[in-house]
Amino acid sequence: MLKLAVFDFDSTLMDGETIDFFAEELGIGEEVSRITEEAMSGRLDFFESLQQRVGLLKGLDFSIVEKISHNLPYMNGAKETIAELKSRGMKVVCFSGGFRTATTYAKDILGYDADFSNALHVKDGKLTGLVGGDMMFNFSKGDMLVRLQNILGISEEETLVCGDGANDLSMFAHAGSRVAFCAREILKKEANIVIETKDLREILKELD
Length: 208
Prior knowledge:
It contains 10 helices and 7 strands. By secondary structure, it is of the alpha/beta class. The chain has one domain (4-207): HAD superfamily/HAD-like (Rossmann fold, 3-Layer(aba) Sandwich). α1 packs antiparallel against α2, α2 runs antiparallel to α3 and α4 (62-69) runs parallel beside α6. The protein is globular and about 50 Å long. The protein starts with a strand and ends with a helix.
């Protein structure tokens, strides 16, 4: 019986990468997108890639960051899937290597119980190029998952995780149900549920 579901945000609960949308505002979309892809495919350390990408955003108005964060395209079936999992008595949480401006705003829209992500440092209304938070490293998601399981008294077998990139590998190590959602090859190898359709409701079919 599953009791906890943890979802990645970018390219999982949301259709795209939040940081890529920010970068497009500065005309550096391609450069940032390339670094994102390297990190998600496991070819670049996540912490280093995050620092590099956020550094490139230095000077961007925080008002623009908030506007973009509040108008992101959510993944097909995200809201319905979360509602269904919660109706089955599960706690649903979002772990993101992205940013609270997006994940905390989406929490009440999509209906998950809590979000753990990173905060962009802002000074005088602009991004400083610095970042800190809960999900800074390759190991962060797995580390936080184990802590949550201990607090809630939930076992690996009672845990479902869902993500698309290399920084989701650490939480895959601590869950009985491992969903690779439209994912990179590196993650598919560790999954026991592989979804290739951009609709999160496909997960429910696997659980029934």
